[in-house]
Structure formats: structure tokens, C-alpha cells
Amino acid sequence: MRRIGLTGGIGSGKSTVAQMLADRGAVIIDADAISRELMEPGSDVLDETVRAFGPAILTADGRLDRAALASVIFENEAKRKELNSIVHPAVRSEAERQAAAVQADPGFSGVLIEDIPLLVETCQVHRFDGVVVVETALAERLRRLVDQRGMSRADALARIQAQASDQERREIATWLVDNSHSLEETRRQVETVYGQILEMQDTVKHISLRPEEMDKA
Fold first, then answer.
1. Where are the beta strands (DSSP E) in the chain?
2. What are phi and psi of 189, to 5 degrees?
């Protein structure tokens, strides 16, 4: 099995790249989707989060008010770390459960990709045979967040700056996908990346190929 990490900053189009990889046969484990499931009413993770942050983070019907929680942790590093200490271990445990189920499937393609927005921030690169980093020009990320998610420009910029920098993500990249241009150009890069993943030996933990070498392969 090739176990690959996929990451990128908010507004980079990482989900688009994940779908392109899935279309080529990869199985995607989505950390954000797991996190949302773990925060459903009645879950241990939500209960622990409420104990830590208080009932004001819940809606009237007992669901997580994500905006209320975000307002608590966004500019408070200590609170953000406290939330991460509750959520991240549970997400990793569920990801491992899903990975085991995938491997047991006789139709498994052999390529498992974990979509983790905060892969750099949570120091998980060691878990993977390689890492795909999706990068997009800042101006385009801001445009997407303002136009597609309805954020103010100031809020969008603050959220980008709260995450790892492009340089920090580049430093852990096995492959770098530039998603600043057309979908066709992104698709071409993804095809190259996926072909190289298929060529990896299962036992390889890190490969020497760097993003700038992709077109030479």
C-alpha cells in the first residue's frame, strides 16, 4: 500500500485535487469529514469539547455552532491547542480504522490518500510515504474565499495567515501541485503525481523526487 498525505491551505483547492486523485482510483480519507462526524450530537468528542468550552458553542438544538467555536479559538493559541488535543487524536484513530477497512477490501487500488488540512501544523509527515501539497497564489485564494465562501477579505487573509505558510508546506512536499491556473493544468499535474505514486514500492517511506523534477519523469 502507498499511504500518501494531501494538504494545502484554505482556499487552495485541495478538495478539487482530492477528487481528481479519487477519480484515478485512490481511496481518500478526509480528516475534515471525520472531524464533522465526531462532532455530531451525543458523541464523546462533542461532549468533551462542550466541557472544555462551555454550552455557548452549541446551537439551540444541541449541535455544534462552528462559528461560535471558531470565534473562541481563532485568535487564542492556547484555546486552539486545547481543541486540537481533544479532536485530533480521535480523528487519527478513526482514520486508522478506515485505513484498515480499506486494506481489507479485495478491490483496493493500493493507493490510500489522507486529506489533512493541518498536516504540517500537526507534525504528521512521518506517517506517510509521500506528501502532495496543493498551492495556489494568494490573490486567487483570497478571491475564492470572498466569492465562494462569503468571507470578508480581512477575515480570509487572517485565516490564511493563521495556517502554515506556503514555505512550510513546500518543505515537506514530495509533490507540489500548482492550482493557480486552469482545471486542465491542475489535472495534468495530478496525472503525473498519481503515475509516480503507482510506481512507488510499498516499502519506500520517502522518495527523492522533488516537485521541480516532476516533468522530467
1. 2-8, 27-30, 111-115, 130-135, 175-178
2. -65, -40
* Integer Cα distance of 36 and 24 in angstroms: 26
How far is the CA of 15 from the CAs of 55, 103, 153, 163, in angstroms? 32, 23, 21, 17
Q: Which amino acid is at 123?
A: C
In DSSP terms, which residues pair with 132 in a beta bridge? 6, 175
CB neighbours (10 Å) of residue 89? 11
CA distance 109 to 128: 17
- CB neighbourhood size of 157 (10 A): 16
How far apart are the C-alpha atoms of 77 and 65, rounded to whole Å?
Answer: 19
**Exposed / middle / buried, residue 52 (Cβ in 10 Å: 0-12, 13-18, 19+):** middle
The pLDDT assigned to 75 comes to 75
* Rounded Cα–Cα distance for residues 115 and 6 (Å): 5
This prediction has a pTM of 0.86
pLDDT at 201: 62
Cell 468550552 locates to 53
pLDDT > 70: what percent of the chain? 92
d(CA 138, CA 178): 12
User: What type of residue is 32?
Assistant: D
Distance CA 68, CA 83 (A): 13
Element (H, E) at 45: helix 44-53
DSSP annotation of 60 reads T
